[in-house]
Design goal:
Layout: H1 2-11, H2 13-53, E1 56-60, H3 61-65, E2 76-77, H4 79-89, E3 95-109, E4 115-126, H5 135-138, H6 141-144, E5 145-148, E6 156-160, H7 161-167, E7 174-180, E8 186-197, H8 202-207, E9 208-212, H9 213-219, E10 225-226, E11 228-232, H10 242-258, E12 270-274, H11 281-317, H12 319-327, H13 332-367, E13 370-371, E14 386-387, H14 393-415, H15 423-432
Parallel strand pairs: 4-9, 6-8
Antiparallel strand pairs: 1-11, 1-12, 2-10, 3-4, 3-7, 3-11, 5-8, 6-9, 7-8, 13-14
């Protein structure tokens, strides 16, 4: 029977082409839109993780509670020992990187050595000089450079291009950083501006500066001390799995608290956070999931309604055929089953075609992307300038499943009309035709 149904679908375009096109268009729209939404959302998460929080973050709770003040005296000592513990006790796919969050006043002198401009800035210290460090690639600093070069030696600094403009500072000019040391004293050090970068986030471009980790430890008297250990996961890991990695590491963290390094303070209490627990991303996840479900639901409803009406119109033209089948001994329920199998077959074929079209569009966006830098230039959203799609199994499931279901439901709703017509009437319509 299935072979006969497939032959009928391929030979009689009048009854199969329109439902096929409807399912193809609906599935392609779902796959493309969900894939694009996933790409934008994961791009926002990855940008936040790379620039700020990591996918996972180990931080001292006293520091985290007063993070807006950059309390350097609440940083974690024994950097090398903690780094080694993280490598041994966390999943091997997590790559850990030590960083220091610092705040300071940037003072720019004039030709006479007097203060020409001055402003408070926020900064991040990371490993920029080690040959095996992935931090430069992680932040895409080579692509973010507007002018100048990356640091190649000690006491060199990168500034956000808007920050450099507001300070009226030029390349190769020396600026002085005035901040707080680990022991609560005043830290002062001179840095040479070697490059201007565009982070793609207006707030960071206006206030952010980057220096090497070793330079920060020297300037702020933080030998073997950092404020954060950021863990980075591969791009194929979904944000839904971050919580599992966090729980696994959190369960092992109790051993470190019970046997802390000897240089820790008595009230040091490291905690693990995922990126979703910071910068209000957990609320954004809820909104994203809700929007995705509503969108898929609307597309499915529209496909069901269109296919229902298509099935009714198609059934009118096939009353004679159905009457003949009833006259040959078929029951109404067998005809409904036949129409359901036929709709299921059309749904599969349309879903496959829609998946190829929608998946191809998402793959193009994943590899090429769309430059939206001007659109987001004046926002505080941590998002890449290039919007990319993301090919995921979930997007195909959300497209194929509803596509097949809509085709079958539309056919079943339309086939109810069969029970409202007698076998004699259906057969007379065959004779009249």
């Amino acid at each position: 029977m299935i072979r006969w149904i497939l032959q009928g679908i391929l030979r009689d375009k009048n009854r199969s082409l329109f439902p096929f096109l409807v399912v193809t268009a609906g599935v392609a729209l779902v796959v493309f839109t969900v894939g694009f939404m996933e790409g934008i959302f994961m791009g926002m998460i990855d940008s936040t993780a790379n620039l700020d929080t990591g996918h996972l973050r180990l931080v001292n709770k006293p520091f985290y509670d007063e993070e807006h003040l950059n309390p350097m005296d609440r940083a974690l000592t024994s950097q090398n020992e903690i780094h080694q513990w993280l490598r041994e006790n966390s999943d091997p796919i997590i790559k850990w990187a030590p960083r220091i969050r610092w705040g300071a006043i940037a003072d720019v002198p004039d030709e006479n050595g007097e203060t020409k401009s001055q402003t408070p800035i926020i900064g991040m210290a990371l490993d920029l000089l080690s040959p095996d460090s992935r931090e430069v690639d992680r932040l895409d600093l080579k692509g973010a450079l507007v002018r100048g070069r990356l640091p190649q030696g000690p006491k060199e600094i990168l500034l956000g291009y808007e920050l450099a403009r507001s300070l009226d500072v030029e390349l190769d000019q020396t600026i002085t950083l005035l901040g707080q040391t680990f022991d609560g004293g005043l830290a002062t050090d001179n840095y040479k501006v070697v490059g201007l970068v565009r982070f793609g986030v207006f707030a960071m471009d206006k206030k952010m500066a980057l220096i090497d980790l070793a330079d920060a430890q020297d300037s702020f008297y933080m030998e073997d001390t950092v404020t954060d250990f950021l863990g980075f996961l591969p791009s194929h890991i979904s944000y839904k799995e971050y919580k599992n990695f966090k729980i696994e590491l959190q369960s092992r963290l109790n051993d470190l608290r019970l046997n802390p390094p000897k240089d820790w303070a008595k009230d040091d209490f490291p905690i693990v956070l995922s990126v979703l627990e910071q910068r209000n991303l957990d609320n954004m996840v809820e909104v994203f999931e809700m929007v995705k479900k509503i969108f898929v639901g609307i597309i499915v409803l529209l496909m069901v309604l269109v296919l229902w009406n298509a099935g009714l119109l198609n059934g009118i033209h096939r009353y004679g055929e159905l009457g003949l089948l009833l006259a040959m001994g078929q029951t109404h329920w067998k005809l409904v089953w036949m129409l359901g199998v036929e709709a299921f077959s059309i749904g599969i074929l349309g879903s496959l075609a829609g998946s190829l079209i929608g998946g191809g569009g998402v793959y193009y966006l994943q590899e090429v992307g769309i430059n939206m830098g001007d659109t987001f230039a004046q926002t505080g959203i941590m998002m890449n300038d290039v919007m990319r799609g993301r090919v995921t199994a979930e997007s195909f499931l959300l497209g194929v499943g509803p596509g097949i279901m809509a085709s079958v439901l539309g056919s079943l709703f339309a086939s109810v009309a069969l029970f409202q017509r007698s076998e004699a009437n259906l057969f007379r319509e065959l004779e009249a035709g």
